[in-house]
Write a structure and sequence with these properties.
The complex is a heterodimer of chains A (312) and B (593).
Chain A lengths: L4 E2 L16 E3 L4 E3 L14 E2 H30 L3 H61 L3 H11 L6 H11 L2 E2 L18 H13 L6 H9 L1 H4 L5 H12 L3 H6 L1 H6 L6 H14 L6 H14 L11
Helix pairs in contact in A: 1-2, 2-3, 3-4, 5-8, 11-12
Chain B lengths: L5 H45 L3 H13 L9 H28 L3 H21 L1 H14 L1 H26 L6 H8 L8 H26 L2 H17 L5 H20 L3 H12 L10 H22 L3 H11 L6 H14 L2 H7 L6 E9 L2 E9 L4 E8 L4 E7 L8 E9 L4 E8 L5 E9 L4 E10 L1 E6 L2 E5 L8 E8 L2 E10 L10 H16 L18 E5 L8 E6 L4 E6 L2 E6 L2 E5 L6
Antiparallel strand pairs in B: 1-2, 2-3, 3-4, 5-6, 6-7, 7-8, 9-10, 10-11, 11-12, 13-14, 15-16, 16-17
Helix pairs in contact in B: 1-2, 2-3, 3-4, 3-5, 3-6, 4-5, 6-7, 6-8, 8-9, 8-10, 9-10, 9-11, 10-11, 10-12, 12-13, 13-14
Classes of the chains: A mainly alpha (312), B alpha+beta (593).
The structure holds zinc ion (ZN).
Chain lengths: 312, 593
């Protein structure tokens, strides 16, 4: 195994929607998803895409008002008699007011629709910008700036969900010493197929942040357990995963088979927790086989452990 | 990659539109402001109109009307104001034109402006009261009438001063005042009639003085020309000219009558001609023209009288003078015809004007000539002939003759040749014999004299039209009295008629011998002969006189008469008019040797 380094990741911005992470340079017509605040090309400040889209929408509205105004003014200019002039003025004001009211009423909807359309229109450009980011990451890797590369790919990965990205993330993460206080990810790294590096990463993550093990991870381990077993200490890894699944009774019920199978590899403290959970839930149905397996394990290995006395 | 992001595109679209809107806004603001201004002005115009203040109403309305930003409905009052506007414009431009014309002293343009002003005024008055009142007010504001008044009074004063100055200085070259005074409108004289009278009096005074002064210094032609010139000026101005014509007539009558009284024909013709040239300005029954016609008639009668009494030169002189007035060609032709008939030697003068010829003979109806004259120039030995042929065309012949010029005697044979084509015989001193004889016949068509014979002999005699007896001719028949016949080719020896006996003593007296011979011939032949004819060397017993065509030796000699062989018709300065061959001729018995 390679030598891992200890790092401190920069804090990731939390957003309600992924698009909120997109920033754009209005001059260069490029997009940016990283933490830079100013365009590297022109030095202009990046603007959130939502704001830019809103601005565009606002301009559309202004354009429409101007067009309308132009028509009204032309009508007035073309007026030949005083009557025509008065009609032109009055009609113009009326149309303007109507338009204004309508805009007030439906402007918000328009903004959303326009945003959607904007995004659709700009997809290609965004993709290109992301591609540029990837190239940058490649360059970072070459320069051995793995931390930067990871931080960047973590952001890019918010938009791209391909295995390639995931595997590259795992690759970068495997360079670091993982700690409890780190902002780590697991579920988002799940590749669609079996991956050795991911399993290795999983091993490290489970050690420091077992709470990241969710149903999808459990499913993945369950699906590829035969391959995981081929790893060094594969049984212990699966046992740890199973132990991590004990955080929620729902997982316990769902992944009984896995737990039963690798009960021997459960750490003592995990076994104790499982025994207590079973004692709390033994009046519910479906836990019998697990209870039996736990009882057997306790009897065989912890019969003299005072902590287990009276639990089951 | 799209060229523009939606952000940029929306920015530009909006800003371009913004600029357009701003432009439109400025335009609209201008239009609204102007429309408002127009409305206000129209309101003012209407208020003024209702208050009967047309001048202010029209001013406001014309300002409003100049604003094109908006159109307003035509209403009766606004239509009237519109019409008033054109009235004002017309008056303003008229006032401007008039002022310019006055400043540059252009009388015609000023008059045009004046007339235009009055036609506009009449038009306005015809239209309606309001327009007329408005017209008057504007005209007053522009002081149009005042300006015209000042200008014309000034012009009138200047013109009258000019008249007076002309009269005082007796210089009549500059007559521009006629035009000036005529173009000053009637009203400044106090009416058409007054203008007429005043100007007529003024002009009459002027012209009368002018006539008097000119008549003293200038010729008739100058005076008449000057008056005619003035007439033209007056007529151009449309001013009546009867007074001027009568002035002219009176003057001309006096002047022409004077020439008639003084019988100064040349001056009469001059003046008549000058006066007749002014016929276009004269009345159709001009006394003077009638006088001229009468005088010309009298002169013609006089000339005709001269012709009838064969005083052709006088008649010719008259005709030539009168030819400047009347066509006298027919009369001259007639004169010439009669003169030639009377004195054919004129033909010679006419045909050979640079020769002074002795007229040998004249006659009629010979050789195809109506009338002819034959002359001889002894100095160059040329025989000249001038004639009128059957068609009346002039023909001239000239031919040099080689003979002893001094002694040449020409005569027309009444024996030889025919009645219509007699032969001219020439007798001169010969070289080998006493005489040289020449026979000539003029041929008008070939314009030459045809020589029938040319021989030398001691004498000769024509016995028949084609038979001649020749004494001792050179050549054939020498020492004979030979008989020759006249053939086409010339004289042909026929036979010996008698022996010719030469008397050496009598060599120098051919005449005597001739007489003897002819007596012999007469005796032998028993022929009746005129003693003068055929014996040119005969010395006449009586004196002969040349008969002239007129009383003077400048006239052509038309023949000869013997002493006391004529009848006297009249006497003049030592000349006798005689009856000669059925016509009249003149002789001077006292001078004749
Ligand atoms: Zn930029």
């Amino acid at each position: 195994m390679k030598k891992r380094v200890g790092v401190q990741f920069r804090k990731m911005q939390k957003t309600a929607h992924v698009y909120e992470r997109l920033q754009t340079c209005t001059r260069c017509h490029t997009y940016h998803v990283l933490w830079d605040t100013h365009c590297s090309e022109c030095g202009r400040e990046y603007q959130p895409i939502r704001e830019v889209a809103a601005k565009v929408t606002r301009r559309y509205v202004q354009t429409r008002f101007l067009l309308l105004g132009l028509f009204v003014l032309l009508a007035i200019l073309c007026a030949d008699t005083l009557t025509q002039l008065a009609v032109g003025c009055a009609g113009g004001i009326l149309v303007f007011v109507c338009f204004f009211v309508m805009q007030r009423k439906f402007g918000a909807y328009e903004r959303d629709v326009d945003f959607l359309r904007y995004m659709t229109q700009e997809t290609e450009i965004i993709k290109k910008s992301l591609l540029l980011h990837q190239e940058e990451i490649g360059f970072d890797v070459k320069e051995e700036r793995i931390k930067d590369a990871y931080e960047k790919i973590r952001e890019v990965g918010q938009f791209l969900h391909s295995d390639t990205i995931k595997l590259r993330k795992i690759m970068y993460l495997n360079h670091f010493v993982l700690r409890k206080d780190m902002e780590l990810e697991l579920e988002s790294l799940l590749p669609t197929t079996y991956d050795k590096d991911f399993v290795e990463y999983l091993r490290e993550v489970v050690k420091v942040q077992p709470q990241l093990v969710k149903r999808s991870v459990l499913d993945y381990v369950n699906r590829y357990k035969s391959k995981i077993l081929l790893h060094e200490n594969g049984e212990q890894l699966i046992g740890q995963i199973a132990g991590a699944a004990l955080r929620m009774s729902a997982y316990v019920a769902e992944y009984q088979e896995l737990i039963i199978e690798y009960i021997d590899y459960l750490p003592r403290e995990r076994l104790l927790r499982l025994a207590r959970m079973i004692s709390r839930h033994h009046h519910e149905g479906g836990w019998e086989r697990l209870e039996e397996a736990v009882k057997r394990r306790i009897e065989t290995h912890h019969s003299f452990d005072p902590d287990f006395h009276g639990v089951l | 990659m799209k060229l523009f992001s939606p952000y940029q595109r929306s920015f530009w679209v909006r800003n371009i539109l913004l600029v357009l809107v701003i432009i439109a806004l400025i335009g609209t603001a201008y239009k609204l402001a102007r429309s408002y201004q127009k409305t206000v002005l129209l309101g003012q115009a209407k208020a003024h109109f209702e208050a009967q203040n047309l001048v202010l109403a029209e001013a406001a309305f014309s300002h409003a009307d100049a604003i094109q930003a908006i159109r307003t409905e035509d209403e009766p009052w606004s239509q009237l104001l519109l019409r008033l506007g054109t009235v004002r414009h017309e008056l303003e431009s008229l006032a401007l034109n008039a002022r310019l014309a006055m400043e540059q002293n252009e009388a015609d343009q000023t008059l045009a402006a004046y007339q235009n002003y009055h036609s506009l005024q009449q038009q306005a008055q015809r239209e309606n009261e309001q327009v007329a009142a408005f017209f008057q007010q504007i005209a007053q504001n522009l002081a149009i009438e005042n300006q015209f008044g000042m200008y014309y009074q000034q012009a009138m004063k200047e013109a009258k001063d000019q008249v007076q100055a002309s009269l005082d200085q007796k210089k009549y070259r500059d007559q521009t005042f006629i035009h000036t005074l005529a173009t000053i409108p009637d009203e400044y004289y106090g009416g058409k009639e007054k203008k007429q009278n005043e100007l007529e009096a003024l002009f009459l005074q002027y012209e009368r003085n002018k006539l008097r002064d000119l008549a003293q210094a200038g010729t008739f032609a100058e005076v008449v020309g000057s008056l005619a010139n003035s007439h033209g000026l007056y007529e151009k101005e449309g001013f009546p000219t009867e007074w001027l014509v009568s002035l002219l007539e009176r003057y001309a009558k006096e002047e022409i009558n004077q020439t008639i009284r003084e019988q100064d024909l040349a001056e009469f013709v001059n003046r008549a001609k000058t006066y007749r040239e002014q016929k276009s300005i004269l009345p159709s029954r001009s006394d003077v023209l009638a006088l001229i016609d009468r005088q010309i008639e009298t002169l013609f009668q006089q000339a005709d009288q001269f012709v009838r009494s064969n005083r052709f030169e006088k008649a010719l002189g008259l005709y030539q003078e009168l030819s400047r007035l009347e066509d006298t060609s027919a009369r001259l032709t007639e004169l010439e015809k009669r003169w030639i008939a009377y004195d054919p030697s004129r033909l010679l003068q006419a045909q050979f004007p640079d020769k002074t010829l002795d007229t040998l003979m004249t006659g009629v109806d010979h050789w195809g000539a109506q009338v002819y004259a034959i002359g001889w120039d002894e100095s160059d030995g040329v025989l000249y002939m001038a004639a009128l042929d059957e068609d009346g065309a002039a023909v001239k012949l000239e031919q040099a003759l080689s003979l002893n010029r001094k002694s040449a005697i020409f005569s027309l044979s009444d024996t030889l040749g025919s009645e219509e084509s007699p032969i001219i015989t020439v007798e001169a001193a010969g070289k080998e014999r006493t005489y040289a004889y020449l026979g000539l016949v003029p041929d008008l068509s070939r314009k030459m004299f045809v020589k029938r014979w040319d021989l030398e002999a001691d004498g000769w005699e024509a016995i028949q039209p084609d038979q001649i007896l020749v004494k001792n001719p050179v050549g054939e028949g020498e020492h004979e009295i030979a008989r020759f016949s006249l053939e086409k080719s010339g004289l042909v020896y026929t036979e010996k008629w008698a022996d010719y006996l030469v008397d050496s003593e009598d060599q120098d007296e051919p005449g005597q011998m001739d007489e003897q011979d002819s007596e012999n011939i007469q005796a032998e032949e028993g022929q009746q002969k005129d003693p003068n004819d055929g014996k040119p060397a005969d010395i006449p017993a009586l004196r002969t006189y040349d008969v002239y065509a007129g009383p003077g030796d400048t006239y052509a000699i038309i023949g000869r008469v013997v002493e006391e062989g004529y009848q006297v018709i009249a006497k003049e300065n030592g000349w006798l008019q005689i009856d000669f061959d059925g016509t009249q001729g003149w002789i001077r018995p006292s001078v004749e040797p």
